[in-house]
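# nightly structure sweep
# worker-07 picked up a monomer target from the shared queue
# config: single-sequence mode, recycle default, output format = structure tokens
# input follows
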Amino acid sequence: MSRYENDANELLTLCRHGMLSTISVSQGGYPFGSIAPYDIDGRGRFVIYVSRIAEHYKNLAADPRSSLAVADPFGPLDPQAGARATVLLDFEPVPEPEVPSVRAAYEARFPDSVNH
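# output follows
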């Protein structure tokens, strides 16, 4: 693993909010982006809670491809001079047997994000 990969992994682990972009169903395939909290599980998989009524949910159900752009919130004034990383992701639902543990970990990090 290169120094840059190590730096990117560290940034992604420390920052837990990013710009999630999905392929918009309602806007003819244009990118749709919004800030989203994320977690990384013990196997290195990104976990994002997406409500079934959210635009991202509809988009990901139609096409699981997305990107997550993360930038150092404490970086220099010039955002292009600071640490940043973009990860390309193919989303899929959490396997049913893993839902309880994934939900517990996500809720521990973001207690106000999941509606019961």
